[in-house]
Write a structure and sequence with these properties.
single chain, about 550 residues, alpha/beta, Udp-n-acetylmuramoylalanyl-d-glutamate--2,6- Diaminopimelate Ligase, Chain: A, domain 1, Beta-Lactamase, 4 domains, 14 strands, CdaR-like_regulators
Length: about 550
């Protein structure tokens, strides 16, 4: 390891005013690092020490109390102090055996001055060394960052960055992209690799001073991790700073690679569009996947369509990064992803790589993750819909999933209760309504059942249609319906009586009730369609 200089107890003993100092305990702690010097003449130190301080004291606070002296040394050790320097003669003449025993047991150096020394000069001298050391560390770090940034302009692969940090630190470099194997720079025998990987996994729960890990984040996801390992010397603060800067540079490089790759995929549009249209044979599809390095583990697939609704043309951002987010999230949930981009519309081809049973749940999880990402919230604050077609078990039947995804999107935009996403298989009655609307005058059919209620509401603003919907949704429970509508039961009874007068006393009997529920869905569907037409006309 190309170690940065760190001030240690053994170095302190070579400084001014330590010529006649003597180490009387903790001889095995000479390599303890000193980060600051602190004068302690009080008995309460819990809020004074942060760790690795060299403590100077005359012992005035515990001069007549051996037990207190021992207790103070224990506290110094608990707070990870570097060592204790005591001036003898003024208040203390000897160091108790118990204190020496405690210090030796914990390898905690105790240094004595046998005559009066200027604590101020000692503090100034050591602090000047530490401050100069920090300046040098900052300078070296800045120099490393500048050289790394220059290299980022010319390097072609992330392996060049791994070699760069190895040259700077001369420690073992370990790198892994999400769901891929670990890479080692320099290369190691497999047995040594396995040993380091085992330590690496353990260190995520139990810190290891010879290992440090920096995650690589892209689009709010863990995209990989960079680690350094030093067998003999503990990882220093400087090493950690270099590791952090390098992880950031890796993230920038990987993002640039992903962006470039995504731009190349634009050329694939024509072929993919033909796939969605059902123009390719199964053999052609397999050849295409092999050519693009995709080893599909199953023939299960689905198509998702994302419809965007920007406020205006200028507010519409580059969708390349949106596609990067989708690809990253869906790949982590077990899918190979292809895209077809149109104006304000993205079509996602998902090839399943895991079990079919939880395929739908994984798609839901991925969509939820995308909705919650900061990138989507900031870059796409406007409304969008996602429509999922039916799942297919054959890659050359993908056009069927595509057609059902388009049907799902069309229905979704005509529903009054619009969610962010819908699956074709969950639309049930809406699919039936959509088909019937192509052959039957649903407006007339719905009016046959609901027109009396609609007209009464228009005339008296009685909210009977709203009450009818709630009453049916609550399966005829009056208490639940009243609670849902925030009305008293007497008001509900009055409305239900009006509904009986308009629809007939049998409106809750099985067959008529099913028909009315269906017509309520038809009414909502047609109302949304009419609203869309009005908006388009404007």
């Amino acid at each position: 390891m190309k170690e940065q200089f760190q001030l240690k107890i053994v170095d302190i003993l070579k400084r001014n005013h330590f010529e006649n100092a003597r180490v009387i305990a903790g001889h095995h702690g000479m390599e303890r690092i000193v980060k600051w010097v602190h004068v302690v003449e009080v008995t309460s130190i819990r809020n004074l020490l942060k760790g690795q301080e060299l403590i100077l004291s005359t012992g005035v606070a515990w001069k007549d109390n051996q037990d207190l002296f021992a207790s103070m040394v224990k506290e110094f050790i608990e707070h990870n102090a570097a060592g204790l320097c005591i001036e003898l003669g003024t208040y203390l003449s000897t160091i108790p055996d118990e204190v020496i025993h405690i210090a030796n047991e914990h390898q905690f150096p105790i240094i004595i001055f046998q005559h009066q020394v200027p604590f101020v000069e000692i503090t100034q001298d050591i602090h000047s060394v530490i401050i100069n050391q920090q300046y040098q560390k900052i300078s070296d770090l800045e120099n490393y960052s500048q050289r790394l940034n220059k290299r980022l302009l010319t390097i072609e692969t992330y392996e060049d960055i791994l070699q760069f940090i190895f040259s700077a630190l001369d420690v073992q470099i370990i790198f892994r992209l999400k769901n891929q194997a670990y890479e080692f720079v320099p290369e190691l025998p497999l047995q040594e690799q396995a040993s380091i990987i085992e330590q690496l996994e353990r260190s995520k729960k139990h810190p290891n001073h010879h290992l440090a890990i920096a995650p690589i984040h892209l689009f709010g996801q863990d995209y990989g991790e960079l680690a350094i390992y030093s067998k003999d010397i503990p990882i220093s603060e400087y090493d950690l700073l270099i590791l952090d800067r390098t992880a950031t540079a890796l993230a920038q490089h990987l993002l640039r690679e992903l962006y470039t790759e995504e731009k190349k995929r634009v050329n694939e549009f024509e072929w993919l569009h033909g796939w969605l249209a059902g123009e390719h044979t199964l053999e052609e599809i397999y050849d295409y996947l092999i050519e693009h390095g995709c080893k599909s583990k199953s023939n299960q697939a689905a198509v998702l369509i994302m419809k965007l609704f920007p406020v205006n043309e200028k507010s519409f951002p580059d969708v390349t990064y949106l596609k990067l987010v989708f690809r990253s999230v869906f790949e982590q949930n077990g899918f190979i992803v292809f895209f077809v981009e149109k104006r304000y519309e993205l079509t996602f081809i998902l090839l399943n790589q895991r079990g079919k049973k939880n395929m739908k749940e994984r798609i839901k999880k991925a969509i939820a993750s995308i909705e919650d990402s900061d990138f989507i919230r900031k870059q796409f604050p406007d409304k969008f819909f996602i429509a999922a077609g039916k799942f297919t078990d054959s890659l050359n039947d993908l056009h069927k999933s595509y057609q059902t995804a388009k049907e799902t999107l069309r229905i979704q935009q005509k529903m009054t209760n619009k969610q962010t996403y819908y699956f074709y298989e969950d639309l049930h009655l809406y699919r039936l309504i959509s088909q019937l609307s192509k052959q039957t005058d649903l407006q007339e059919l719905a009016a046959e059942y609901l027109q009396p209620v609609i007209q009464y509401d228009l005339k008296y603003n009685a909210k009977l249609l709203e009450t009818l919907k709630a009453y049916l949704e609550c399966n005829g429970s009056k208490q639940e319906t009243a609670n849902k509508l925030y009305i008293v039961r007497q008001t509900l009874y009055h409305r239900l009586q009006k509904l009986e007068n308009l629809l007939g006393a049998d409106f809750m009997e099985r067959e008529k009730r099913i028909a009315i529920e269906f017509m309520l869905l038809v009414h909502d569907y047609l109302a949304a369609s009419n609203l869309d037409r009005m908006n388009q006309a404007q």
